[in-house]
Amino acid sequence: MDHTELRKAIACMPKTELHLHIEGTLEAPLALQLASRNNVSLPWNTLEELEKQYDFSNLQSFLDLYYILMGTLKTQEDFADLMFAYLQRAHENGIRHAEIFFDPQVHMNNHIPFSTVIKGLLNGLDLGKQAFGITGGLILCIIRDMPVESAEAVLKEAEPYAKDLIGIGLDSAEVGYPPELFEAVYRKARQLGLHCVAHAGEEGPADYVKQALDVLHVERIDHGIHAYDDPELVQRLAQEQIPLTSCPLSNKRLKVVNDIRELPLHEMLQAGLRVCINSDDPAYFGGYLVDNYMALLENGYSLEECATFARNSIEACFISREEKDTLLADFDKWYEQYVK
User: Fold this and answer.
1) Which residues are catalytic?
2) What is the model's pLDDT at position 1?
């Protein structure tokens, strides 16, 4: 297949997205539109000026811009519009199910009530399901470089909405903020019936992945690239089939690696790890899910390997066995047509 045919094949491949920050889908044009709608003053007045800010040297330089633009989100309508815009792109990318992170602590610091955030996002999810047939839900992410007391406070705010959430996650600047700091928060989340995931091993060491597993008792590791630095941990992840939600374009854009070819995803698959591919913060990192798959195909990965990533994404999501089997049946039809 040529490049165009490959892209069409990847676009129609049934898959899920499990590592996606909804605030990270805030495209520059929508950010400017929301700023105007809500009378928010930004340091940049034109689209050209804003787009120049998207050249990042590391995770923190990205977060600085990320948090400024989050300040344009004020109303339920804003959050619903943001979610619907993502789900439209998800539909174009062949995503059947999405488990979506959101960062309520930042919004609450911007004086936006938790209820405004979650009601808007849930409304957007409902509208997207009606329009595109995509199922999904929300994972409340804890900002790890904020005080632990802030995490405890936001979880208390979330209690009345626990049935509307899939799980709890842990994100933002990793180095210096080990998972073990949030043991009590995760214990409470499990008591509320939430699934547990956490960012670990992106900029942080393999030990952070171990802490996420042993202290937070997570069911999925977000990123986890540095898990490959520890052979014993690799063996454990393979044996326990703990999913890892890899984000290639993000890893390159944030200088986790200098080149896609440096990512050990070939080796992780060969070691039996359940790795899947995701877009992380696609408005900032140069592409949505199909773009991430195409980056792999353009850097030495095979269509067979990409199919394995997609199958893994279905197996790794928090839906029923029956729902997984339905998605896998569609995936198998795609596989017969494009891979075999």
Assistant:
1) 202
2) 81
